[in-house]
Design goal:
about 200 residues, Glutaredoxin, Glutathione S-transferase Yfyf (Class Pi), Chain A, domain 2, 4 strands, binds glutathione
């Protein structure tokens, strides 16, 4: 039995999206982020974070790793690409999203929405907005002349990266300078499986 721990109001939404996209049966345990450091959750993930996947005793954490594992084990082409080269590209875009984009988006989120007003640093938010220009330009260029990151079909590369970039919508990041990336993000996040994942507790 597959179990996914973590509320959809957290990075767990990414993994719920992958589970929905793959059409898998699973149990969702909507652990709140405030309970991520509970003794029960620490047993599953010593980092004290969600999401956590338990696939019949195989316990994994890190949202991107969970999604690549799920797609690799249960997915078919085009969601899990047929060629080794395209799988490499899926890993590339997942790592890129986590290292080149997510930290800036989190900085905007924290300093404009999450932190108590007296702890927010607007200068840090402005710097993070500026820092997103480079990665967005890279993404825009990569998407020119193609529907999705690997070609004409939606794949796990798109799911993972657009799930990370969904924070851009949350913080109302102006993406008008990179219209191809903006349109791609809207298309990915418009999928029924994403909407289903976000509707869960
Ligand atoms: N890199 C990890 C980050 C996990 C993470 O920081 N999760 C947050 C929720 S979005 C969390 O559990 N926060 C609660 C805490 O750290 O106490 C991943 O992508 O899975």
């Amino acid at each position: 039995m597959i179990k996914l721990y973590g509320t959809s109001k957290s990075r767990s939404a990414r993994c719920l999206w992958a589970l929905e996209e793959l059409g898998l049966k699973y149990e969702h345990i909507p652990v709140e982020t405030t309970k991520a450091k509970s003794p029960e959750n620490l047993k599953l993930n010593p980092n004290g974070h969600v999401p956590v996947l338990d696939d019949d005793g195989t316990v994994l954490w890190e949202s991107m790793a969970i999604n690549l594992y799920l797609a690799g084990k249960y997915g078919k082409a085009p969601l899990w690409p047929a060629s080794h080269e395209d799988r490499g590209r899926a890993v590339q875009w997942s790592f890129w999203g986590m290292t080149e984009a997510e930290p800036h988006l989190i900085a905007i989120l924290r300093n404009r929405m999450l932190l108590p007003p007296e702890q927010r640093n607007e200068q840090a938010a402005v710097a993070a907005v500026a820092a997103m220009a480079g990665p967005l330009k890279v993404l825009d260029g990569a998407l020119k002349g193609r529907d999705y990151l690997l070609g004409k079909d939606f794949a796990i590369a798109d799911l993972n990266l657009s799930a990370i970039l969904s924070f851009a919508l949350l913080v109302k990041l102006d993406m008008s300078a990179t219209p191809t990336a903006q349109a791609w993000l809207g298309k990915c996040l418009g999928r029924d499986a994403f909407k289903k994942a976000r509707s869960l507790p």
